[in-house]
Amino acid sequence: MREIAYLDLLLRMKAGRLPRSSMMESLDLHVEEAEAGRVVFTGTPHEAYSNPLGTLHGGWYASLLDSVLGSAVQTMLPAGKGQTTLEFKLNFVRAVQLDGRPVRCEARARHVGRRTGTAEGEIVDADGKLLAHGSTTCLILDF
Questions:
Q1: For residues 142 and 130, what is the distance between their CA atoms, to the nearest angstrom?
Q2: Rounded CA separation 96/64 (Å)
Q3: For residue 31, what are the CA distances in angstroms to 43, 52, 71, 87, 94?
Q4: Could you report the average pLDDT of every consecutive run of 10 residues in the chain (143 residues)?
Q5: What CATH number belongs to 6-142?
Q6: What is the torsional sign of CA 20, 21, 24, 25?
Q7: What residue segments make up the domains of the chain, in order of their start?
Q8: Is 47 strand, coil or helix?
Q9: What's the predicted TM-score (pTM) here?
């Protein structure tokens, strides 16, 4: 898939013309919106992702947000370029309710240069309440 631009890849996933990645399948994540510099995924947290206390494991939030933040940066890159997380910051605001309703995660690229890219994003519940927010710095790579 390195020969097509990432934005096109996301739009093909959204339309069902390409399968979701194995990580997206595992975490029940879906592409809802994608444009240059802005990406929205939804995900439904399940009890299978809970920690021993019975609440949603923070790693699920982190994986969702990291995926969307990196995707926002990646949509600004041409085919043949990639990115990887160099730094990641996550602020938890409130717990996700394991009620079967999906959450929404939106990220926007803030800067994409030759060597690094940055993005900011947030996760909100089905009622629009802020659950978490964070930011990333990505290292830009040649494939």
A1: 35
A2: 13
A3: 9, 29, 10, 23, 23
A4: 81 96 95 98 94 92 97 95 97 93 97 98 97 98 90
A5: 3.10.129.10
A6: positive
A7: 6-142
A8: helix
A9: 0.95
